Amino acid sequence: MQNFDFYNPTRIVFGEKSIARLDDLVPTDARVLVLYGGNSAERSGTLAEVRAALGARKLWEFGGIEPNPAYEILMRAVELVRTEKLDFLLAVGGGSVIDGTKFVAAAVSFAGDPWAILETFGSTVTDALPFGTVLTLPATGSEMNCASVITKQETLAKLPFMTPFVYPKFSILDPVKTYTLPPHQLANGVVDAFTHVIEQYLTYPTEGRVQDRFAEGLLQTLIEIGSKVVNEPADFDSRANLMWSATMAVNGLIAAGVPQDWSTHMLGHELTALYGIDHARTLAIILPAMLHLRRENKRAKLLQYAERVWQITEGDEDERIDQAIEKTRAFFESLGLKTHLSDYNISADEIDRLIQQLQAHGMTQLGEHQDVTLEVSRKVLEASL
User: Fold this and answer.
1) Helices (DSSP H) in the chain: which residue ranges?
2) pLDDT score of 364 more than 90
3) Annotated domain spans of the chain
4) What kind of architecture, by CATH, is found in domain 11-177?
5) CATH no. of 183-383
6) pTM for the structure as a whole
C-alpha cells in the first residue's frame, strides 16, 4: 500500500426530513446565498423546505446552474456575493450545482482572473467561503469531496480543480428527494458512481486490500440496485443505497493509498464540452474501450474484477477479461446508456477535433502510469465508435 494522507471534514446528515437540520447547521447570523439549478427544486418543494428551515436568516437566491456548470454564469453569482457581502453558500441540487458552488466559494476572494483556478487545477486557491449542500441527485459524490469540474463556454474547455478549501462544511442527504427524478437521471447516477469506483480500483495491485474490498462492495451494490432504481417505483432502501454509494465512491476513502486512473473521465469531459452528451453517458462510451485497449497494464486487477465483482472464474485469462468488460458494457446498456460514439451520431471524422481539445487542455499523459498519450486516446476513441 502506498503512503497517504486522508482528510475529509464534511459532516453528513443522512435521512428522511433532514433538511430541517439546516437550522442547526447554518450560522444564525449568516448572509446566505442559495444556489440551485432549474425549476425542479422549486416544483418538488425542496426550495420551500430550505427557506423554511433557514428561518429568519438573510437570504438571497441564484438559480440557473445547469449541467456542466458554466464559468460565465457562475461569475454572476460571484459578483452577487461580492456586492451583497454574503458569507455563506448553500448548494441545493446535484453534482453540477455543488461543483458550481465550490467554484463560487473559491472565486469570491481569488486574486486575479478566477479562470486561473481551473488552469492551475486548484493549486492557487488559498481560501474559500464556507458552504453546505442539500443533495437532490446522487451521482458525482461532490457533496463529500474537494473536487469540481467547470466548463468555459467561450472556449469549450471543461476542466477540473481540487483544493481542500472547498470541502463542504456539511451535506444533507435525504433519499426521498430522489423520488421525483426521471429514469435517465437515475441511470446516469448509477453509471457515474460505478465509473468513479472503477477509476480508483482498476489500476494495478498495491496490496490495498481494504480499499479493494470497499470498492468491490460498492460496485456489487450498484449492480444489485441499478435496475431497481431505474425501472421500478421509488422505495427508500434502494434510493438510500444509491445515494450513499455515490457519496462513498469518491470521498477519498477508496482512493487512499492506491493508484488512480481518471483517463476515462478526461476523455469524457471533451465529449461533453463539444457535443453536450451527459457526463455519465460519455463514461459509458469510453470505459469499455479504455479497459480493452489497456488490458495488459490492468491485467491483474481486471482478473480480480472479473472474479470478485462478476463471479467469472471459467476460461483462460483473456476470456475472463473479455467477459468482464462485456458484462460492464451490458450493465450500462441495461440501464439505457448507449456505449458507442455512433449512438450519438459522432463519426470518425470528429476524432481529430477531440484529440486537439485534449492537447489544448494538457491531457497528454493520463492514467495511473501517465502512459495514456494522445496516440492511445485516439485508439480509445476509434474503438468507441
Assistant:
1) 22-25, 40-43, 46-54, 71-84, 95-107, 116-119, 183-201, 209-231, 236-249, 263-275, 279-293, 299-310, 317-334, 351-360, 374-383
2) yes
3) 11-177, 183-383
4) 3-Layer(aba) Sandwich (3.40)
5) 1.20.1090.10
6) 0.94
